[in-house]
């Protein structure tokens, strides 16, 4: 048991000092946090417009038309934030997983 | 997230003055189409349960389907967890009643999902095994933290179970014409069968089937309704403005300014509450690895977003199709109340464009939805009792698999009985406050502790306990002092806390206490916990040592 846990600690130590691991951590954090800020920012911006200047969303798309800007904007927020999850998942499932795989392979047990 | 009908509606009632509460639902004549279709669904799911039971051998199979669910399947199941009867009926009714404001709420229900993708999905999978307490207690005191996390889980599960059971009873009374207590018992017993024999495998498949039915049913309904407007949104908008009481006001945001703090508190609770619901968190342990966990939120987010767009179309088309048709109004008065209450808009639309057969189909789907939600909740509750409390706290990890399975089954039966009894007990109550409580507790107790355990090195056992309890107690107290309990349930004149949702206040409090107490914690134990973060971090990033999948 104790030799097991020393081995594990040793493993983790090796991984932490691996430059590829540090790169992985840095890239992942950058992408995850910037997308979080982007989506949250977009949502809060929308809520501020809703509360403070609702007339913007109430303007017709075309002169004399009945569809307003609010409708495509609402749909865009949903579709856009979904596409952002797609972006993250794609990057994580290719680049990040490759990095982490090679970090694990380089680690000697 | 699975909102049950009366729950979501209750929440909306507290924000708007929409319609009579669902408890006023009248029993309708027996709906044979609906009952026949629901019977088919039950038959299908029982076959699946029988198949699942033959594959469920170990605790891993039972809690997490052995980690053998694919990302796509799990995405559908997560979406199913979130797309409840409440989202179909509640949100479409919201759009029907208030027009564009319904869109604003719908977006609030959605944006939590991308955040879970970016910040939580892969870490949950890499660090956890059966319950979210696995993650929180990874480097903290097993006994104390697990007890606390199980308490948080069970509080959320029980509140939500009551909301679901009461909603099921009311909805079934309305749609099927069955007696309330029979409906509650049918839901409770079917749930017991699914969970007891089929565990997570059956629960997941029930959820997947329901999600597919709901997506297909909703989309078909939306297309049939849109065909009445030649598929032109402009055409729809013109007619909707003409038909609606408030006319042109439905095309833009309106009454959001009435109570912005309540709206902010609700969105915060929704946004972060999702990430603290034990039955949702559990879904991330059913996939083989972090890659599939990420894929599953991507698919789930896509399905949920698509479904919400469909629901908005349903709401808008109903304004014209249902809103101007006297057959759906009490006494045929289109200025008066809708038959069956304000939440039945989507059902009336189904009848208007698809006849009785389609109405029966949609009713059966709504019933199936509640059943699937309740099963997931029961499974989450049972695993908190057997895995966290029994195996890890009482037996200190020394329990055999057989012992743990036995306790799980006893716990499931116990939860089923409790759910049926509470469902019957709460029949006449307005359970809106339980939704506030569910999301309030999830966002201010489970979520802060979980996210800090994953991201903050300096977290200590003491900090997590104090902060978690601060969130739990403040959420409870604020809900008791809120209008939904203080005025509606207890009958006082004026609420002491003026908002229905506590998250805006209780969540920051929980975080503040967690940080403060952890920072001040100078114990030796705290030192060890902080130094264990580095290894946890490696595992969170690379999945080193994470539980692997079992092949079926």
TrEMBL record, chain A:
<feature type="transmembrane region" description="Helical">
    <location>
        <begin position="69"/>
        <end position="89"/>
    </location>
</feature>
<keyword id="KW-1133">Transmembrane helix</keyword>
<keyword id="KW-0472">Membrane</keyword>
<protein>
    <submittedName>
        <fullName>Uncharacterized membrane protein (DUF485 family)</fullName>
    </submittedName>
</protein>
<feature type="transmembrane region" description="Helical">
    <location>
        <begin position="31"/>
        <end position="57"/>
    </location>
</feature>
<dbReference type="GO" id="GO:0005886">
    <property type="term" value="C:plasma membrane"/>
</dbReference>
<dbReference type="InterPro" id="IPR007436">
    <property type="entry name" value="DUF485"/>
</dbReference>
<keyword id="KW-0812">Transmembrane</keyword>
<dbReference type="Pfam" id="PF04341">
    <property type="entry name" value="DUF485"/>
</dbReference>
<dbReference type="InterPro" id="IPR052959">
    <property type="entry name" value="Inner_membrane_assoc"/>
</dbReference>
Automatic annotation (TrEMBL), chain B:
<dbReference type="InterPro" id="IPR018212">
    <property type="entry name" value="Na/solute_symporter_CS"/>
</dbReference>
<feature type="transmembrane region" description="Helical">
    <location>
        <begin position="357"/>
        <end position="386"/>
    </location>
</feature>
<dbReference type="GO" id="GO:0015123">
    <property type="term" value="F:acetate transmembrane transporter activity"/>
</dbReference>
<feature type="transmembrane region" description="Helical">
    <location>
        <begin position="34"/>
        <end position="53"/>
    </location>
</feature>
<keyword id="KW-0406">Ion transport</keyword>
<feature type="transmembrane region" description="Helical">
    <location>
        <begin position="297"/>
        <end position="322"/>
    </location>
</feature>
<keyword id="KW-0769">Symport</keyword>
<feature type="transmembrane region" description="Helical">
    <location>
        <begin position="432"/>
        <end position="456"/>
    </location>
</feature>
<dbReference type="Pfam" id="PF00474">
    <property type="entry name" value="SSF"/>
</dbReference>
<feature type="signal peptide">
    <location>
        <begin position="1"/>
        <end position="19"/>
    </location>
</feature>
<dbReference type="GO" id="GO:0006814">
    <property type="term" value="P:sodium ion transport"/>
</dbReference>
<keyword id="KW-0812">Transmembrane</keyword>
<feature type="transmembrane region" description="Helical">
    <location>
        <begin position="103"/>
        <end position="121"/>
    </location>
</feature>
<feature type="transmembrane region" description="Helical">
    <location>
        <begin position="74"/>
        <end position="97"/>
    </location>
</feature>
<dbReference type="GO" id="GO:0005886">
    <property type="term" value="C:plasma membrane"/>
</dbReference>
<keyword id="KW-1133">Transmembrane helix</keyword>
<feature type="transmembrane region" description="Helical">
    <location>
        <begin position="501"/>
        <end position="520"/>
    </location>
</feature>
<feature type="transmembrane region" description="Helical">
    <location>
        <begin position="407"/>
        <end position="426"/>
    </location>
</feature>
<dbReference type="InterPro" id="IPR038377">
    <property type="entry name" value="Na/Glc_symporter_sf"/>
</dbReference>
<comment type="similarity">
    <text>Belongs to the sodium:solute symporter (SSF) (TC 2.A.21) family.</text>
</comment>
<keyword id="KW-0997">Cell inner membrane</keyword>
<feature type="transmembrane region" description="Helical">
    <location>
        <begin position="261"/>
        <end position="285"/>
    </location>
</feature>
